[in-house]
Amino acid sequence: MGWVYLILGIIAEVLGSTSMKISEGFTKLIPSIMIFVFYGLSLILVTLSLKSIEVGVAYAIWAGLGVAIITFISIFLFQESFNLMKAISILLIIAGVIGLNLSGEKSKPETQLHHVKMEREA
Fold it and tell me: Residue 31 CA to chain centroid, in angstroms?
């Protein structure tokens, strides 16, 4: 379920970033409100994903994919510039996300938290 929360959190973050552009500097009421709604929802969902995904991996995926997706949206929806450097940078972000997933240790966060609590008691 953690991965579902993370994907939904990424979608909410992208909608929040898109709302920022549409709000035109907080001059449009509904998109301005939606910025806070979507970012709040994104933080809730990403936090829920941390029950089963390591924070470093979840945050890297959330931030990296969010940047890549919003870059594509800015190019295709808002006709912003696109060049070779942007393309290479997006590919490097995607490669980094794949690398994190392939190298991540499959440990249970509950065990890690228990270990931290035990160290504090000592």
Answer: 20
Give the predicted TM-score (pTM) of the model.
0.78
Q: How far apart are CA 20 and CA 12, in angstroms?
A: 12
Q: Residue 36 and residue 47: Cα distance in Å, rounded? A: 16
Q: How many structural domains is the chain composed of?
A: 1
Domain that holds residue 29: 2-121
Question: What is the DSSP annotation of the chain?
Answer: -HHHHHHHHHHHHHHHHHHHHHTTTTTSHHHHHHHHHHHHHHHHHHHHHTTTS-HHHHHHHHHHHHHHHHHHHHHHTS-----HHHHHHHHHHHHHHHHHHHH-----HHHHHHHHHHHHH-
Q: Which two tokens stand for residue 73?
A: 């949206």
Q: Which one-letter amino acid corresponds to residue 88? A: I
The model's confidence at residue 82, banded by pLDDT at 50, 70 and 90, is very high
